[in-house]
Structure formats: C-alpha cells, structure tokens
Amino acid sequence: MLQLSYKPYLLQLKRVFTIARGSRSSAPLMLTRIAFGGQEGFGEASMPALYGESFESAAAFLSRVDLSQFSSPFETDTILQYVNNIAPGNQAVKASIDIALHDLVGKLLNMPLHQYFGLPAQVMDTSMTIGIDTPEEMAQRAREHAGFRYLKIKLGAANDRDMINAIRAVTNAPLFIDANQGWKDREEALDMIGWLKEKGAVFIEQPMLKENKKDLAWLRLHSPLPVIGDEGIQRLTDLREAPELYHGINIKLMKSTGLREGFKMAVTAKALGLQVMLGCMSETSCAISAAAQLCALADWVDLDGNLDAQNDPYTGAFVNNGQLHTTGKPGLGLGNINWDDIVPCSTNSAN
Hints:
Layout: E1 3-19, E2 22-36, E3 39-46, H1 55-62, H2 76-86, H3 91-109, H4 113-116, E4 124-125, E5 128-130, H5 135-144, E6 151-154, H6 160-168, E7 175-178, H7 186-198, E8 201-205, H8 213-222, E9 227-229, H9 242-245, E10 248-251, H10 253-256, H11 259-271, E11 275-278, H12 285-292, E12 300-301, E13 318-320, E14 323-325
Cofactor: Mg(2+)
EC number: 5.1.1.-
Organism: Chitinophaga alhagiae
C-alpha cells in the first residue's frame, strides 16, 4: 500500500530575488514523501504566488489524495491520472506527487530516472540567474558567477539597457534573457531584442504578456533571436499553438505537473521543431535533481533554483564549473534523508 506524507517548508533565499512581476526573499514549498515496500520517494511543490498556489491550497489538495487505493507504484499512469483529475490547476502540488512517485519507482528498480525514461546521463552547462537589481549590484553578481558559461538575466524594468551595459562591463558570457512578460509594445520589444543580440544574448524568454498572442506571433516572425515561451507554455496541451507563438519552450516541472508530462512535452516539442529549455522555480535539490534527469532532451538548461537557497534539506544533482551533474544513484539520486529531521514551517511564514 502506498502511503503519502507531506509537510510545509519555507525555503529561505540568500538575497531578495526580483523579476518584472515582483520580489521575494523566500519560497513556500510543500515537501512530499511516498512510502512503499521499505522504500521512500521524495518530491516537492514550489509555489510562487504568481501561479496561484499556496500552503493552504496545497494542503487542501493533498488531503484529498488517497494513494492507499493503489497496490503498486508501478501503476504510474493510472495514479497520476487519478491525481490530475482531483481538481483543475494545482500543477506544482501535482508535481510533488509525480516527483516522489518517480523517485520511489527508480529506487525500487535500482536505476536513475534518466535511465527509466530511456535517456543517457547528460552533463549540461546551466545558466546562473541574476534578478533585477541596481546595475552595479547585477554587475557584482556577474563577477561572482564567473565560473558559469551562461548567465540568465531578468529584465522588464525601465532601465534594462543600463543593467545589460553594467553586466557587459565585467563579463562576455552569453546571456539568456528573461523579460517575464515585462515588455508591452511589440516594436519596442523588437528593437530591444536586436540590441540584445548585439550584446551577446542567446534567446529571449517570454518577452510579452502570454495573453498577447497577436503580438507574440508577430514578434516570433520578426525576432533575430529565438523567442521562448515560459508563462505562456505550462502543460502539454499548450503545445498546440506554441509553434505559432514561439521558437521554443521552457519546461518547468512545477508547471507541467512533474516528470511524466515534462518528458512528454520535451519529446513533443522536438517533434514540432521547437527548441527545449529546462527551467525551475526557487527549489531544493530534490526538484532540481528531478529536472536534471531530462537534460538529454534539452537545448538549454537553467536549473539553478537551489543554488541561492540557505536551507536546502536535500543533496543531489550538483554544479561543478557551471556544469550540472546527476549523481547516478537510483531515482532522483538524492543523498540519505531522514524525513523526520526536516522541520516543517508555520503556514503563516511565507512572505
């Protein structure tokens, strides 16, 4: 019989993280565990406010999940379909169950999950993200992350060019640009993209509001750099219109409901001629280790969400000289975990 446990956890960040749509110094998580046959699988939900999930919504959803009705974790598709049908939305908390279930299955099979999905282990360069700040502070962070091949820069503020110029004064590293829907006018966005290409940008992530499909389609046709869908591409069904709006997609397990659907999204995107990026929220090494299992399907990787965490309760996939490595251990590849040692937070603690 499968047994589900969960607890709220507040991930503290090393510094305030700012994007075009807000700032935060911590991230509310819901940690999950599924036990079966003497093994445990671990997962998590990272729930930034802009996606509408919270400690309260996650707890309410999980209280409705009854995994004891299933006799085996290898009924994976049946279990995840049942979880998906409990209620619409709730992608992150659904991902927490998916990740824990796959971790459990990998451990029971004694194989890392990339092998379970038929993929080779893949070492990839991950970008390191620099949030919106003063140009001077962003330049300092670029100096601190000189060991990374790529830097991911959050834009969408009034002084975007000043920030890029400050960073360019200290590094020539290629830049992943994420506007987080912060640009409003398509002509100005196109002008900015042309300028960013001259400054060494690799692609532009979600330049305009996801609802502004007419201007996104126009920008896709005219942009000198690939336009990548993030907020506009969450689940597999969103890929139907993706080729008309974007050159590629950013797959995040917290949006896709986990590894199962994230894998399907990557394979489908490739079949549609779309480029694939693997991204993350502010997460622990648990969710980062999960996403890292799919690196062989990615063109670009931005899996740095655990690197700015002060209180990561897990160890797993790691970065060495800017490159992301999986551990090769079964399941997610996490280190030894005592679930009872992870202290839950008050659900009133999130900022």
